[in-house]
Every structure is written in C-alpha cells, then in structure tokens.
Design brief:
Layout: H1 3-12, H2 18-25, E1 28-30, E2 37-39, E3 42-49, E4 62-64, H3 70-113, H4 115-121, H5 125-146, H6 152-172, H7 182-204, H8 206-226, H9 235-252, H10 272-286
Parallel strand pairs: 3-4
Antiparallel strand pairs: 1-2, 2-3
Length: 295
Amino acid sequence: MSEALETLKAILSEKLPEAEVQALIAKLTVASGNGSVAINGDASEAVIVTGSRNIIGDNNQVIVNQGTDPDELVKMLRRVFQRNEKVAFALHTISHSMTMVFVDLMRLLYVATSDIAHTANVARYGEFIEVAEQHFADLRNHVARSSNELDAQLNELSLNLDKRISFILGRLKRGPNLYGSHDDCFKKMKQVGQQVDSFCTSAVGKEYLDVVDLVGAYLCRAVEEASITLETASLDSILRLRLYVQSQLLQSGFSLDESKIFTIADDMDQDFGVYYFVLDKKLLDHSFSTKITKI
C-alpha cells in the first residue's frame, strides 16, 4: 500500500472498524504522476495527501494529513462515493438507451433496403417505427434527467447524437422504400455508430470494451465459417451474417447479468442492445465500403 493510502487508512481507523476501513480503501487508487489518491481512479475527484492541516473543499477535492478530522474525511469519502455511483448509473442507463435506438434504426434500415428483410418484416414496419420512437423518447428523458451528471464532452456528444438520430428516424418514418437514398443512410448510421461507440467507451469503459471484444470474436468466427469478405459482401449476405451472430449470442446466454434469454423480445432490461449495437457497428465499419449491392 502506498504512503498516501497508509495515511488515509490511519485517519479512517480512528473512527471506523477495520472492515469498513478496508472497504473504503479498496475504492481508492493512487493517481499516477501527482501523488494524489483518486476516487475510483478519477483524478479529478482526488483526496490529496500533503503536509497541510486543513480540509479544503474544492470540486470534491480534499487535502488531508495525520491531523485531518476523521469525521470530516469519512463524510467526504462517502459523499463522493455516492455521487460516483449516481453518475455511473446515469451513464450506464444512457449508454444502453443509445444502443437500443441504434439497433432499432438498423432494423428499420435493413427492412427498407434488404430483399430478405423486406419480405419477412415489411408488414411490421409500422410496429418497428413505434418501438424506435419509444426508445428514442426514453433516451431523451434519460439525458434530460441526467444532464448534470455528464461532463461537457459527453453532453455535447449526446446533443449531436440526438440531432442525427432524429434526422435518420425522420427519413425512415416516411416508409420502407428509400428510393435510392439508402447508401446515404448507411453512411450516416456509420457516423452515428462511431459516436455512440465513443460515448459508451467514455461512459462505461472496460465493461463496454469487454462486450466489444466478445462480439468481435463471435463475428470473426462467423465470417470464417461463412467464407465471405465483408468489404465486398452483398447486403443480404451481411444481413444473414448479422442474424446468425445474433442467434449465437442469444443461445450462449451472454448478458450483463448472465441471465438466459432466447430472443431479443425477452430482454426486459435492454442489456442485449449493447451486444447488438457492437455487432451492427462492426458490420458497418467493415462493410458498405463500396456501393451497396443486392443479390
């Protein structure tokens, strides 16, 4: 344990039992390069251990030493931890909502452009529009409620995404026949996918990146089994691959709470939206590099 953490542990031990001290210390890490102790790895909310005898409140920052009031230190730590938990919950909720809306838009786009998707699901196009509108409304509500929890960069990103999603959904609401404009829609969805990916990476971090790795492994295996090249594959071939990988993920039972579900309709908590989003983004990143073709 670092000298900084030892100092904090000594102060906390004056007021708390050992088990509670260890629980608090477990949430602290030494921020690299500045000798401060960062809450949950975030150096912007740091407990700075110096020779000062004062506790200084400034943007959740506190300076402590052996003379620090233990009661004040305990209150400060618990306050910061509670806020961090609130922020983390808000970011997870917004990220999940973003991915669900993206998957809704891709489903609509495939129905409007792929022959096999159009034949199978054109009768449900209106239902898919309603689902997309509901998820988009949910996303807007989550962002509005949690705007104070987002930093300037994530707020700007969410606002930009709102405008682009609104534009694409508006175009898709005109009906399942895009009259030659589907190339432009796929390009715009690729841009939106990159922005959603940036938001999830910043907001969720390792948990999201683990999903990216998992879905990537499933997709690579499916591409090898199908012996296709994504960059030159037809739209219907890509859709078949998408459906196959989705089925593999569902059958494997991977979800954020490790519960077993059998169709996306069973995903009450919307956890699989993240997996489906990652799959759609990867397909967009590696496909449609040339003009879209149909079989």
